[in-house]
Amino acid sequence: MQIDDSFYDIYLSDWDFTRQSIGVNFGTLSPYTTTEADLIKKLTKAKRGRFITQMYAGVCAIGTYSFGMVVGWSSPITYEMLLTSSEGENATSIENIEDDHYAWIISITALGCCMGIFPAFLLLEQIGPRLYMILANFLLIILWGVMAIVTTYSIFMVVRLMTGFAAVSFLICGETILTDCTTKYYMRYTMMMFNSSMVLGIVITYVMGGLWGKSKTCTICCSVCAFHILLLYFAKDSPVILYARNPVEAIKALAWYLGKTNIQLKVKQIKKQHERRRLESSSDLYKKYLLSSKAVLKGTLTVFGLIFFEVSSGYYALLFYNVSLFREFQHKDSQYKVLGSIYFGVCLWIVTVISSYIHYPIPCGVKKPLMISSILITFNLAASALYLTFMEPSIDSRTHLMVPVILFGTFIICFEAGLSFYPKVFLKDVLPDQVYPLIRSLITFFHWLMIFFMLRFFFPVGRI
């Protein structure tokens, strides 16, 4: 591999920057006069890397915000659109659809996400996450424009399917860039931005749809996608993905994110991982041996089980259907629908931010948070079922809202305590690097397929 002289100039120019930034001039200190405090300061700086460019990796959070807007096109937005958007007397117009069709409108987005999993993972390795997100944004701009003027049910369903297909790439590509370009110290803050932005997109779209309607909401969604394209233009691609095509560009990209004096160990790890994956994964026999090993099968089946219980908890029904606490008023006054959406979003956003901060770095392993989260969710769902079965029909929700409010808030806390986060960590820990991309794509596909079936068949709209 040939490295030009400009590459070394980058490192020489950054040495002065590092000395000034940590307040120690190592060029004027000999090994005999350097104190232990100076070495600790230098070592701490090297571990953390450059703060500003790592935070720029948080541009991926704009992508999760766009994904949140796609999910947010549900109740009460869709109800408002069903009642106000259609013109004419066409039997297939959006205005004339029934509850069963409405369930399809909600769940079809999850089906689109399911269909977009394998293309996203395939193109991620071929063209890189940055370029793939740019292409997905262009597609979403077109889809939002079509959705703003569509008046027929069939076209609307196709657009909803395609928005899920395009938007799911933001989750996959965003996680890849953050993992490859952020040190563990700053991963806490970038993942806080990444996770909370999706919730913020959902909530703001709820409110915009309830207050402004379809056209203005679609215009704002297009503007967010255009702004995301502009930010991605100045960002660097994932150095891990770039290394297979151009090692020099990969090192420069890593230096841009982490700081040029902090990447030597990371470069060695990327090179070692690339060579190992290239040599070992090229053998079909080796792949079959890994996929059929007991450790891989046991870990994969365990994660499948965790995903099944995660989806069955009903968390994603809250995201897509936006179950309103003010059910008696939801057909009388849009003010209560917006108020319920705001409460839903504020609770979810606060808990997401706090849980993302606590989970990085992982404080007490994976097993304990998963067990605690599952047990607490079980008790919460049992209490909710008892309340809805025996108490809810005889209680006026205008004066007794505290019980569902408490149940709703504790459910979100219990879910974010472990079940929303640690299945991915567990999968990464138990699988070797050679088969991790393949198993991860299968797990993600199964995840969104389960969400689709849950949204379509297990939650009748008439009960919401």
From TrEMBL:
GO cellular component: membrane
GO molecular function: transmembrane transporter activity
Compartments it resides in: Membrane
Keyword terms of this UniProt record: Membrane, Transmembrane, Transmembrane helix
Transmembrane segments: 51-73, 102-124, 131-151, 157-178, 190-211, 295-318, 338-358, 370-390, 402-423, 435-459
InterPro entries, sorted: MFS_sugar_transport-like, MFS_trans_sf, MFS_Trehalose_Transporter
Main location as per UniProt: membrane
Protein name listed in UniProt: Facilitated trehalose transporter Tret1-like
Lineage, top ranks: Eukaryota, Metazoa, Ecdysozoa, Arthropoda, Hexapoda
Record gene name: LOC112905839
